[in-house]
Amino acid sequence: MIKERTWRCSVCGYIHKGETPPKECPQCSSSSKEFLEFNENKPKTRLKFDGKKFDVLIVNGSSHHSHNTSILADIAENYLKKRKVSYRRINLNELSIYHCWCCYSMKNNACTYPCRNQLDDMQALYEMMLNSKAIIVASPINWNNMSARLKDFLDRLTSLQNMPLLKKESLTKCKVAAIMINGHEDGAMKTAMDIFLYFQQMGYILAPYGIAYRTHGKDHDTIKDNEFFKNDKVIKSEVEGLVNNVIETINLNIESKLAKNIISICE
Q: What is the pTM (predicted TM-score) of this model?
C-alpha cells in the first residue's frame, strides 16, 4: 500500500494529501511546482547560515519559487556556476519573514542590528548579506511595484540601514547590487528603481548595467508568459550580461579598497 503524502502550496498554504501534488492548486491556481512536501508533525525550524563567506546572494522575491521570476534567477545561477563563482540562492516564498515592526518610529535606537525580531528566518538572511560581496534581486511586477514578499524583506533591512544614524559603522557599504525584473506589462524600471533605493541607502553600489528587465505585453494572456520567458533569448543574454558585470565589479575589490574612505549618510 502506497503511503499517503502531504503537500503544501508555498504560495497560499493549501494542503493536499496524495501520492503526488495536484496539477494546479485549487485555491490559488499555482502549478504543481509550487508544492513542497510537508510534515505536519515536524516542528518548524528557522533558517540557519553556516557562516561561510561567498560571493553572490541571489534573492528570488516572487510569491512563486518556480514561475516566471525564477527563470531569471535560474539563468543567473547557471551563469555563476559556469564562471565558478560561489553563491547562495534564496526563494523568499519558502521562508518565514515577518513584516517590519517599525521600531524606528518609536525612537532612533530602538532599531538596530541585530534586529529585535528573532522569530523568523530573517536573521540568517542578514548574515548571508554581510558575508557576501554582492546581491542580485529578482522581482516580478505587481501593480507597478515589487512583490509584497520582497517588500517585507527589504523593509526588514532598516536595521542595517540605520547603523550610521546610531553612530555605528555601516556593515554593507560598497557591496555590489544588481536587479532583475520581469512581468506581464508595464512598470519594470519603476520597480527596479524602487528596489535599488533600499540598497543605495545601505551604501551598495549598482553594478554597471546592473538592471535587466523584460515584459511580455498586455496583448497576451498571462498563461503564455512562462513559455515566453523560458524561450526568450533577449532576457537570457541580458541576465548573463548583468551577472558578468556583477562578477567583474566584485573582482575589483571595491569593498575592501573604497569602504574605509566612504562617509556613511543615513536618511
A: 0.91
